[in-house]
Every structure is written in structure tokens, then in C-alpha cells.
Specification:
The protein has helices spanning 12-25, 47-64, 81-87, 95-106, 120-130, 157-171, 187-194, 201-214, and strands at residues 2-6, 31-35, 70-73, 92-94, 110-114, 136-141, 175-179, 198-200. By secondary structure, the protein is of the alpha/beta class. It has a four-stranded parallel sheet, sandwiched between helices. A four-stranded parallel sheet has the order 6-5-7-8, sandwiched between helices. The longest helix has 18 residues, at 47-64. The chain is globular. The model has no long low-confidence stretch (mean pLDDT 96). It binds 1-(2,5-dioxo-2,5-dihydro-1H-imidazol-4-yl)urea. It comes from Sphaerotilus uruguayifluvii. GO terms for molecular function: allantoin racemase activity. Keywords: Isomerase. Its EC number is 5.1.99.3.
């Protein structure tokens, strides 16, 4: 199967590290193509960044979605997820939604350790939206800037480990969700150090995408995920011929 990994920020090094993490867990029959928008923030660290990035996701799935059997939106805010599901018929997964569900399968309660503290509310909103707020016992920021993870984040692993240990104790949780796609390459190290399940949303989304494709499941076009209505978009790409 052809899996499109879409990094919604415009950091090429982060796109590369996300692609490497995806390829490390993908099954032998899965081909990974990694892309990012041609415009938008180099990192997504708040509501304004998310809004611009969501438009980038909408445009990127229009330009690159053809031929993909599934798409993964690889940013922990899942920006543009619903728009991408409208635009495509193949399964589209967000790394936050995938990580939350994976964590709920292996622990009665999990904690999220993310980057800037100001982005915690985004994860909290998503937990409510996905119906998993009752399974998450805390969302914790480290105030690590996203671009500090551009090189894979090895320099940040000790700080993330300390935050995870505190979260496990304070929240009485049984698992840790890594709250940034840029942390994907640290998952194995943190799992070994912490001795609890540590979930990286990129890996979870890749394997869930393979499962959905294997089950023959595609995004419903009944209701709100039906194709967007044909119309002109002023100052935007050519009218969308869905
Ligand atoms: N909470 C986050 O750090 N979200 C993210 N911002 C990015 O640019 N990529 C992410 O995964």
C-alpha cells in the first residue's frame, strides 16, 4: 500500500525524521511518501499556527493525495483532519487520535507529555472531541520548542523522560503518549528507560492506517465527510474539481 505521511509544518528536517520513524514501523508492503505544505509555519505551537497549517493540509492533500491508499497527518494537533477526510475517500488519520486510541488499549489511564505548555489545551480539546478525555489523566508541557526536535531530539530526551516520570507518578497513569510528531524517534529509548508503554502517534497512525486499508475501510461519504461542494475559492487554488 501507498501511505502518504503529511507533516503539516514546513520544517524539512522534521519531515525527514517523521518519515524515518514511519518507515521504521511500516510493514514490508507499505511504501511511505512524506510531504509538507509549500506554505505555513516552520513549527506549530499555538492556535494561529494550527489555523495556517490546517489550510496547508487542505492544499497538500489536494496536490498529493491522489494515489495514496491512506494519509497520516503528522502533527499532534491533528490540523486539517476533517478537511482532509472530506477531500479524500481513503482513510486519513491524525497522530494524536491514533496515539490516544493506542494508549487506551494498553492502560486504563495515560498521560500526555508534549512540547510548549501553551499547546496542552489543544490536546485537551482533541481528547474531548475524540471521546477519550476520561482515559487521559493529565497533559503536561515541557516547554521544549518544536524545532528543538528537528534533529530527532536526542538532546531533549532526558527532559522528556523526567516529565514523563513526574506525570506517571502525579497522574497514577500507566502509559505515556508523546505529544509531538518530532518526538517519534525517541519512543524506543523512552520506552526502555521508563518501563511503561510509550506511544508515538506516528507509529500508531502508520499501523492503524495499514489495518484500516487491510479491512477495506474508507472514509464515509455519507454526511459531513462528503466531498466539499464545488465553488470558487478567491485567491486560492483553481476551483476544486472533486
Ligand atoms: N504539540 C506539538 O508539539 N505539536 C506539533 N507542532 C509541530 O509543528 N509538530 C507537532 O507535532
Amino acid at each position: 500500500m501507498n501511505l502518504l505521511i503529511l507533516n503539516p509544518n514546513t520544517s524539512e528536517p522534521m519531515t525527514a525524521s517523521i518519515a524515518q520513524a514511519a518507515r521504521a514501523v511500516a510493514s514490508s508492503g507499505t511504501t511511505i511518501t512524506a510531504v509538507q505544505p509549500a506554505f505555513g509555519p516552520r513549527s506549530i505551537e499555538g492556535h494561529y499556527d494550527e489555523t495556517i497549517a490546517a489550510a496547508g493540509v487542505a492544499e497538500t492533500v489536494r496536490l498529493h493525495g491522489a494515489g495514496a491508499d491512506a494519509v497520516v497527518i503528522a502533527c499532534f494537533g491533528d490540523p486539517g483532519l476533517d478537511a482532509a477526510r472530506e477531500a479524500l475517500e481513503v482513510p486519513v488519520l491524525g497522530v494524536a487520535e491514533a496515539a490516544f486510541h493506542a494508549a487506551s488499549f494498553v492502560a486504563t489511564g495515560f498521560s500526555v507529555v508534549t512540547t510548549m505548555t501553551r499547546t496542552c489545551v489543544t490536546a485537551e480539546h482533541l481528547l474531548q472531541r475524540y471521546g477519550l478525555a476520561s482515559r487521559c489523566r493529565g497533559v503536561h508541557g515541557t516547554d521544549i520548542p518544536v524545532l528543538a526536535l528537528e534533529d530527532g531530539g536526542a538532546a531533549c530526551v532526558d527532559l522528556i523522560e523526567a516529565a514523563a516520570r513526574e506525570a506517571l507518578a502525579r497522574d497514577r497513569s500507566g502509559a505515556i503518549v508523546l505529544g509531538c510528531a518530532g518526538m517519534a524517534g525517541l519512543c524506543a529509548t523512552l520506552s526502555a528507560r521508563l518501563g511503561v508503554p510509550v506511544i508515538d502517534g506516528v507509529a500508531a497512525a502508520v499501523r492503524f492506517a495499514e489495518a484500516l486499508v487491510g479491512l477495506g475501510l474508507r472514509t464515509s461519504k455519507q454526511g459531513d465527510y462528503a466531498r466539499p461542494l464545488p465553488k470558487q475559492y478567491v485567491g486560492w487554488a483553481a476551483p476544486l474539481g472533486w
